[in-house]
Fold this protein.
Amino acid sequence: MVALSVELDHLELDAVALATLVVALVTGFLAWATWRLGTRAAEEIRAQWRPVLLVRARQWPGDQKLVVDRERLTVDIENVGRGPALGVTAVGRSATELGPATPVSALAPQEVTEFDFPLPHPHPQHVSLRLNYSDLTQASYETSVVLNLAERRVIAQDFEMYRPFKLGWYRLVPRPLRRHLAPVAERRFRRRAGA
């Protein structure tokens, strides 16, 4: 009789341990699912405010979005996205590097700006442009454009986004201590990059 009660107590402990394990697994799954939903929501919000720089579309048949002079190429660039483009830089290339255009600090949505690039003489037939910029969350973007100067038309435009680098463990540190931690992290990454 004593042996039977010991076995029943042992079975009850096994059932409690198994139930605890199941609850822990379900809780872990729910935490992961909640984290994943939050990440997707943040990505959707970022997509709603993403800047996209492209060569401006033609407004009417005689509209000139590309102007090729004797020494310069002028290209109209428009922010067709919904967020501001910050720190916009443009570099032109043909067989040789054309050089950078004057950088623009910010470009609001639906705003158009002109970028001027020096051209070698004789003019190359094809020129590629690279526009680098960021958004409010410091995510980096790049738009590549290939132009046919002889026909004054855009051959291709490509847009890419690079996510901002954020330290995951940085959020675990209380806010008052973060300012003391940032210089330590910067020194550590500088050492790794230099090595």
